[in-house]
Design brief:
It holds the Pfam family MarR_2. This is MarR family transcriptional regulator. It comes from Actinomycetospora endophytica. By secondary structure, the chain is mainly alpha-helical. The chain has a single domain, classed as Winged helix-like DNA-binding domain superfamily/Winged helix DNA-binding domain (Arc Repressor Mutant, subunit A). It is built from seven helices and two strands; from the N terminus they run ααααββααα. The protein has a two-stranded antiparallel sheet. Helix 1 crosses helix 5. The longest helix is centred in the first third of the chain and has 25 residues. It is globular, with a radius of gyration of 17 Å. The relative contact order is 0.13.
């Protein structure tokens, strides 16, 4: 397998997993959720974030982060609240509906992983996961993939 094919196969596996997740989220009442929304909800985190902080975490401009927040707010997955330490700032927080999407995503990803493990076998899955950890030069997953893919 060439280096280019490796990259495309890894991306294809990623895409398949994420597409399957979003198909299931749609069936479970969240048809408008897109992959970029998941990255943003993860980047906002449990304590919330300003648009500037979100932009840094996603690797996009404050304006792009604000547009993402607008879309998530229109869907009811986040809301802007006053910063208790600075009334001029707004903090974006994940709503109960947004937390449901995150909770369902974890549940669905676990089921999808188990399905794939059944397809390739327990030993091969563990070996593949160990190999992927070794290939990731960053050492930890990054949530700025949406910015990276859209550049």
């Amino acid at each position: 397998m060439s280096g280019a094919e490796l990259a495309f196969r890894l991306f294809g596996a990623f895409r398949s997993l994420v597409d399957d997740l979003h198909d299931e989220l749609a069936r479970r009442g969240h048809p408008a959720v897109r992959p970029a929304h998941g990255f943003a909800l993860q980047a906002i985190g449990a304590r919330g974030a300003t648009a500037t902080e979100l932009g840094v975490r996603l690797g996009v401009s404050k304006q792009a982060a604000g547009k993402t927040v607008d879309g998530l707010a229109a869907l009811g997955y986040v809301e802007r609240t006053a910063d208790p330490t600075d009334a001029r700032r707004k903090i974006v927080v994940v709503t109960p509906a947004g937390r449901e999407v995150l909770r369902l995503s974890v549940e669905i990803f676990e089921r999808l992983r188990a399905e794939r493990e059944r397809d390739v076998g327990v030993t091969r899955m563990r070996e593949m996961e160990a190999a992927l950890r070794g290939l990731d030069s960053a050492g930890a997953p990054r949530v700025d993939a949406s910015a990276w893919l859209s550049s």
